[in-house]
Amino acid sequence: MDEFELIRRYFARAPAAVSACRVGIGDDAAVLQPPAGQEMAVCSDTLIAGRHFPHDTPPADIGWKALAVNLSDLAAMGAQPAGFLLNLSLPQPDPAFLTGFASGLFELAQQHECSLIGGDTTRGELSISITAYGWLPAGTAMLRGGAQPGDQICLFAPLGGAALALAQWPHSAPGVRAALLRPQPQVALGLQLRQRASACIDISDGLAADLGHLLQASGCGAQLDAQAIPLAAGLDACAPAQRWDYALHGGDEYSLCATLAAEPLRALRSEFAAPVYVIGEIESARGLRWRGADGQINCLPNHGYRHFT
Ligand code: ADP
Ligand code: MG
Q1: Fewest 10 Å CB contacts: which of 71, 132, 231, 240?
Q2: Mind listing the pLDDT tens digit for each residue in 39-59?
Q3: Is the dihedral of CA 123, 14, 192, 199 positive or negative?
Q4: Cβ pair 131, 85 in contact under 8 A
Q5: Ligand 1 test: best mutation among 19, 62, 84, 120, most atoms within 8 Å of CB?
């Protein structure tokens, strides 16, 4: 099976209208005709075997996750996903791998009506790089830099499941295993937050690190309340220091953290079906503070996952 046969067999599918793709797979470049009045949000993320997922990860989960991490970034901007490019490097054209990979990839793509419009295929170590794009009304993108003192800091999913599953790998309990392998990008939530949240970020590098980025961009600080942090099932069995390390610093957490003033928060709560966890408040004093279960307030180091350190 050569490169072209591989693309035809596993990846060439007709793009949906929302992708705005006039020319897709099969020419030198895709051609898009963006909808009037919309801006394009575009992002890219790479997964490398052994670094971003264990070598023995099921292929369908690799396909799902490669797209999910990108849709999470689009969700954090408040964009409606529309399409993506797939740059795939693999050691050999293994049909079992490709069938599984494509099934997980397209399962998530179909849930969000997000079309594959092109890419590149090469031989090499297993790595998957996806560039995804989506639309949002011009001027409405949610940025990291808009948080104001007094805004409430909100989460919309429990923390620490993915980090716990990775630590337990390959014997992860089913609940946390799904958090690691099948993260659900919060696309619908992102659309509901747009024009309500003062700032938003996805916490893929861990809450402390990514909230730190939001605070830096907004020029302010925050205090978090330990007792308000939602924890994934299974974390209660961990020793406290371990539990908080997973919850605050564990990466692979593809959910949103947003800041909202009181009125937009009320409006969101009346519309959003799932729980909204208020975990702290934005303050004008810089830095990230932490009120423990004992009421003591301490500074929180903002280390998350970093390449090249
Ligand atoms: P070129 O040599 O002109 O760069 P390629 O031979 O790399 O073109 O790709 C041929 C067509 O197949 C292009 O439209 C490209 O976007 C598409 N393509 C290549 N690899 C993939 C892939 N992994 N998934 C989807 N489309 C792909
Ligand atoms: Mg090419």
Answers
A1: 240
A2: 999 999 999 999 999 999 999
A3: positive
A4: yes
A5: 120
